[in-house]
Design goal:
Layout: E1 2-4, H1 19-27, H2 35-45, E2 49-53, H3 60-75, E3 86-89, H4 93-106, E4 114-117, H5 124-132, E5 136-139, H6 141-149, E6 160-163, H7 166-171, H8 175-184, E7 190-195, H9 200-209, E8 213-217, H10 223-226, E9 228-234, H11 240-250, E10 255-259, H12 263-274, E11 280-283, H13 289-300, E12 306-309, H14 311-314, E13 322-327, H15 334-341, E14 351-354, E15 358-364
Parallel strand pairs: 1-8, 2-7, 2-8, 3-5, 3-6, 4-5, 6-7, 10-12, 10-13, 11-12
Antiparallel strand pairs: 9-15, 14-15
Helix pairs in contact: 2-3, 3-4
Length: 365
């Protein structure tokens, strides 16, 4: 049944977490759980299935990574070749990498093996890791099914299954792949389902996946927009670039993430910004995976001032300290707008939105 986020939990020490996880949290300076962590970790430690409705940047990855690591430690399984115990599905390679990083952070004092499985890179290392045996596999659906058909992975030992960003999975056309994967999973398993929005197709998918589940609703899809003060400044299409330059020079106090509609538009905008001596690069599906990883890492390390991205390429990117998120091109739909402005962490900084005919500056209350 639906539950709102718990307000009774004010410290991670209120959970019955094992010492290695407590030490990892303390080492990272994490003491107070976010709302979704406060509401989800307890039921997950009890072995309940969970449906979580939460935006990017709410701490949902830790909400499932922490209890999964504790469950793994309790199981004390020796990983078998090609048979992971935990399977996490994400829509993009970037998000899969971030999820794996979270497991490594919170599980730094726990002995476990993990691999990421996604396309755009050679299968060699992924296949070798699976053959050696892993506890956790974080994957995108396409590459996972490729390896499954090749006999490089089996799902017989799956104890916990996580489907992250389900709405984006469906938007990207992964439903047939998801159905095939779900058909192969053991019936007796622990299932976790996360989505930023809950349209009917997502609800239907969740209903077929979960049993006796707890529902945690932390941030309804519209609430991110509701908490933003929006200032509209009209501008001619031909003047968008000029206005963008003005904003970057006068308002941006930190790093900036800019969205464009197309890959060509992203590259074209980068060329214009570089001419103004701005440290700027683009990330989109037309670049190789290694190039995208390099650019994203440079942005996270502060070596770039501006990252220009398309929607799919930016999915799962969470960077603390963003000064603005700028929609240089209009998103296709309201949901994409919500996802775009949710790129920052739990306490977002000011954001901006220039469109074809207007510039909208958004500030989080």
């Amino acid at each position: 049944m639906p539950n709102s986020a718990s307000t009774a939990i004010e410290s991670f020490f209120q959970f019955d977490l094992i010492d290695p996880i407590q030490r990892a949290l303390h080492g990272e300076g994490y003491h107070r759980p976010t709302p979704i962590q406060a509401a989800a970790i307890g039921p997950l430690l009890e072995g309940r299935d969970l449906l979580g409705c939460a935006q990017t940047g709410t701490g949902k990855t830790a909400a499932f990574a922490i209890p999964i690591l504790q469950r793994l430690d309790a199981l004390q399984r020796r990983p078998r070749s090609k048979a992971p115990t935990v399977l996490v599905l994400s829509p993009t390679r970037e998000l899969a990498t971030q999820i794996a990083d979270s497991f490594s952070t919170y599980g730094k004092h726990i002995k476990f093996r993990m691999t990421t499985v996604f396309g755009g890179v050679s299968q060699g290392r992924q296949v070798h890791a699976l053959q050696r045996g892993v506890d956790i596999c974080v994957a995108t659906p396409g590459r996972l099914l490729d390896l499954f058909r090749q006999g490089c992975i089996c799902f017989d030992d799956i104890d916990t299954f996580v489907l992250d960003e389900a709405d984006r999975m469906l938007d990207m056309g992964f439903l047939p792949d998801l159905k095939r994967i779900l058909h192969e999973l053991p019936e007796q398993r622990h299932s976790l389902f996360f989505s930023a929005t809950m349209p009917p197709p997502v609800k239907k998918l969740a209903a077929g996946l979960l049993t006796d589940h707890v529902e945690v609703i932390v941030t309804p899809p519209s609430s991110t927009v509701d908490r933003i003060d929006q200032c509209l400044m009209m501008v001619q299409h031909a003047d968008k670039l000029k206005l963008l330059h003005h904003m970057l020079q006068t308002e941006a106090t930190g790093q900036v993430l800019i969205f464009t509609k197309t890959k060509r538009g992203a590259d074209r905008l980068v060329k214009q910004l570089v001419k103004s001596d701005l440290r700027c690069e683009a990330i989109h599906g037309g670049k190789t995976q290694s190039a995208r990883n390099r650019v994203l890492q440079a942005f996270k390390q502060g070596k770039l001032d501006i990252l220009v991205a398309t929607d799919l390429a930016a999915r799962g990117i969470d960077v603390e300290g963003l000064s603005h998120v700028i929609n240089f091109d209009m998103p296709h739909d309201p949901e994409s707008y919500v996802h775009r402005i949710g790129r920052t962490g739990p306490e977002p900084a000011p954001r901006a939105w220039p469109s074809r005919s207007a510039l909208r500056k958004n500030t989080m209350r």
